[in-house]
Design goal:
By secondary structure, the protein is mainly alpha-helical. It has four helices and no strands.
């Protein structure tokens, strides 16, 4: 039973990592949701998971982007952190106007 718990944890962690990567692509507009779904259809990827509802929002909010910055800091992908931090400033300014 302990092995099953560990496997579930690793599967959850894998889903979390995929969600953060997918969110990065969507938020930075390096990929669209349609592109991710096309990759899914072509079996280039196994699933599309995101930490936000792509029907309701595009993920370009300060709280989502800050969450991504924190995630990429923990895995030491500082170039992505810098890109996302600049994006927070841009998004915040745009929404204030």
């Amino acid at each position: 039973m302990e092995v099953n718990v560990k496997m579930e944890f690793l599967e959850d962690l894998d889903l979390y990592n995929k969600a953060m990567e997918n969110a990065y692509f969507i938020v930075t507009r390096k990929k669209t949701l349609k592109q991710l779904l096309t990759e899914l259809e072509a079996k280039d990827i196994e699933e599309v998971v995101l930490p936000f509802d792509p029907i309701r929002e595009d993920g370009r909010t300060a709280d989502i982007i800050e969450m991504l910055v924190e995630y990429f800091e923990t895995i030491e992908e500082y170039e992505k952190c810098a890109e996302l931090t600049n994006l927070i400033e841009h998004v915040t300014k745009r929404r204030q106007n």
